[in-house]
Write a structure and sequence with these properties.
425 residues, Alpha-Beta Plaits, MutS, DNA mismatch repair protein, domain I, Dna Ligase, domain 1, 14 helices
């Protein structure tokens, strides 16, 4: 593509985006080596639909989001192995992955549970990335694909291309401008990092259909018509670094915990237990990010496939802002008065907004100090003995609740529970 040039590609050191290949499936294969080279999928909450697929499953025609109840009855998928989402193990392996990445480079950024941006040396960046990938595989067993570029967005394009051609590494810093332009011309704009369906449609109105079109577009027009975020994306595709490793353009705006129930709940007493568990989980996330919330939104709903759909919500102002789990559990109870007894509800959720850094307001009353100390103590016990060791009200029960998420195809917690540890022979 003759019109494409690198811009100021060499102003910053190169960087890599390292991504675990099909993270959930890869973890399942580490836990059970007999799954290697077999068609494997991981299912969503309540064993609903495919959310992760091995290459072998993709070759059989399994699509993302295919319902398990349909897949399991197809004769040509008789050898397909399905696993329930083992979030505890996926979280543990994610932590090991990011900790391993940090042993190679002092400049890293966690992009997602299975992706990390890594700052590289100017000399031999591909060799440094290959060393990192080899260490990740040796220490965790997880295979990775990586892309190297002068900007985050180009590194993401390179990583996507590496996965598409089934290569462990693609280094765009060794490519000519024409070759990079050709790759961008073959990349739909919908596949560019951060470009969703609505933005894709809007860009099409300006004749922007590929990543190359976006790279050559007027960045000022993009900013005025959409946002500075899109302007950054276009400039980075043109080789101009706008987001260094560690750059966080936007603070967290909300914390949400929402789930489809494993069984319908039709009484306020049982829904009270559901909401207590969800509020405690949301509080745990809030405290992990060092935040307090000023507003809580709680909702419950029945299935949209029923003749009469019920949806109830309730907003509670938290004054002063708090991350106290007991206060959040208590705040969920307002929605129970709106609940229709005997009607089957199958979803509930909690959203916390109006977030601010914890500690901005001093604790004035002894009761606040005691509640804060209690929350810290509960967290310490949970971290040491597991989240089911202690909790608030019904959230502290060890036995499984009737409405808990269904996971009938769950692998053992082979690295996170003493009673299910892997046996090595």
């Amino acid at each position: 593509m003759a019109d494409y040039t690198w811009g100021t590609a060499n102003s910053w050191p190169p960087l890599a985006l390292v991504d675990v290949r099909s993270m959930f499936v890869s973890v399942e294969r580490v836990l059970d080596p007999t799954l290697r080279d077999r068609a494997v999928i991981v299912l969503s909450n309540n064993d609903g639909c495919a959310v992760a697929r091995s290459d072998e499953a993709k070759a059989l025609g399994v699509q993302m989001g295919d319902p398990w109840f349909k897949l399991r009855d197809k004769p040509h998928l008789a050898d397909l192995v399905a696993k329930s989402s083992n979030y505890e193990e996926y979280g543990a392996f994610s932590s090991r992955f990011h900790e391993t990445v940090a042993t190679i480079s002092a400049t890293t950024e966690t992009y997602s549970v299975d992706e990390a941006f890594v700052g590289l040396p100017r000399t031999a960046p591909a060799a440094a990335t290959s060393t990192l990938q080899a260490r990740v595989h040796q220490w965790t067993g997880l295979p990775t694909a990586a892309g190297i570029g002068p900007t985050k967005t180009l590194a993401k394009v390179a990583q996507r291309h590496a996965k598409a051609i089934r290569q462990p590494l693609v280094d765009l810093t060794t490519w000519s401008s024409n070759d990079v332009g050709d790759l961008l011309a073959a990349t739909p704009v919908s596949e560019v990092w951060g470009i969703g369906s609505r933005l894709t449609a809007g860009l099409a109105g300006l004749g922007i259909h590929t990543a190359a079109d976006l790279a050559l577009a007027d960045a000022g027009v993009l900013r005025r018509r959409w946002s500075v975020v899109l302007e950054r994306t276009a400039r980075e595709l043109a080789g101009v670094p706008c987001m260094p490793v560690g750059f966080t353009p936007k603070d967290r705006q909300q914390v949400m915990y929402s789930r489809m129930l494993g069984a319908t709940v039709s009484t306020s007493a049982e829904m009270r237990s559901v909401l207590a568990q969800y509020a405690a989980a949301a509080a745990r996330r809030l405290r992990a990010h060092g935040l307090e919330a000023a507003l809580m939104q709680v909702w419950i709903s029945s299935s949209r496939f029923r003749d009469q759909v019920d949806h109830h919500s309730h907003a509670v102002a938290l004054d002063p802002p708090t991350s106290d789990p007991l206060a959040l559990v208590e705040a969920t109870r307002g929605v129970l008065a709106k609940m229709r007894e005997g009607h089957p509800y199958n979803r509930a959720g909690v959203m916390l907004t109006g977030l601010s850094p914890a500690g901005a307001r001093p604790l004035l009353w002894a009761s606040e100090n005691r509640r804060s100390a209690l929350a810290c103590t509960v967290e310490e016990i949970s971290d040491r003995f597991g989240r089911q060791a202690i909790g608030y009200g019904p959230t502290g029960f060890r036995h499984r609740q009737r409405w808990d998420m269904r996971r009938e195809l769950l692998s053992p917690a082979a690295t996170t529970r003493w009673d299910q540890l892997l046996t090595v022979r």
